Amino acid sequence: MMTGVMLLPMESKTALTHFLISLHWRKKRESMDLAMYLFMLLSVYAANRVVGGIFSNLPNLIQITLYENQLQSISTGAFGHMTLKELWLYDNQLTHLEDNVFTNLTHLQLLVLSRNRISSISAGAFSGMTELGEVSLHTNRLTSFEEGTFTGLSKLVNISLQNNQIRSLPGKLFHGLPALRKLDLHNNSLPNVPQELLESLVMAEKLILTQNPLRCDRDILPLRDWIRRYPSKVLNSSPLLCLLPAPLRNTKIANLTDEDVMPLTTQSLTTIISTSTHALVTPTEMRRKPHTPPPKKSTPATPAVPANTISPTKQDNSGADGNEEHLSRNTVLITCALICTAVIASAIICVCWRRRKRSSSDLHQQAKNSSVI
Known about the structure:
The chain contains eight helices and twelve strands. It starts with a strand and ends with a helix. Strands 1-3-5-7-9-10-11-12 form an eight-stranded parallel sheet, with no helix packed on it. The protein has a domain at 343-373. It has helices at 31-47, 195-199, 221-229, 258-261, 266-281, 283-288, 319-357, 363-372; strands at 4-7, 49-50, 63-66, 73-74, 86-88, 96-97, 110-112, 120-121, 134-136, 158-160, 182-184, 206-208. The protein is α/β, with parallel strands linked by helices. Pfam families: LRR_8.
């Protein structure tokens, strides 16, 4: 009775005639089992997928190995009710795992899906796998997970997710996994780890997070506190370091203070106030060089020059700066002239109005008022 099968890569020479069959016999070889295996072999090679019911007549298998066979999909129901303990599907071309694709494998303990092209996993893909102890999903194209992906896997001990492109993880992704001991997330794209997710890893013994672009802002504080609380659980070849922002690059996350990651500290507020003050005093300078104080004057003070006189020998360090200063001075002069004109015009109008009301008898007084104007 056949208990295990292994399909070699399609690239092997004369794959259909010179292939290795890994068979574990409980009693004696039965020709019916071998014939069924050959049928299964031809079906998988021809279709590049595991179709429904292909293993239905091999209920006593405990291990199936289908590596490097260019498998692109697995149909729901491909695995019937069987006592399979190990399923090796690495080095294929799988891109997606559908709901209930492994539902009948209630005795499976090891599932290896590494080195495929998996970019998405339906929330119910692992439904019903109550005995699963280890799942390997490393070296795929995963970027995120649905929250209930691992729900119901109460005996899951080891999850391998390294070498993917994971950018975020739901907070409740690993809730309800009391047996989880090792979680490998190194070489992904995680900027931080949610506090809710870390709280679900209290029973874990190893968390590997190296080679992630960790950003040290407020969102990194839960990870910092978790590392301080459980330093022995963070299994890394070197301390976890900040990648961003630039001022904190290569800083140990465990050594971060709250002030390091707060966006507005006392120093920052002082800088903002100082910058605002400079903006009020010299607006053109601050527009030219934002967030920097105006340059210090290194030349001694020169005598005052009349406003309508421009010295031809005076040169500035920068032509553009000189032009801006002259434009600013001319603008001030024009504004003052307009204000003075408006005041004088108002005074004239007021005097004329008063003149109409006054009596014209006192010519001497009118002459005096006119001279004042």
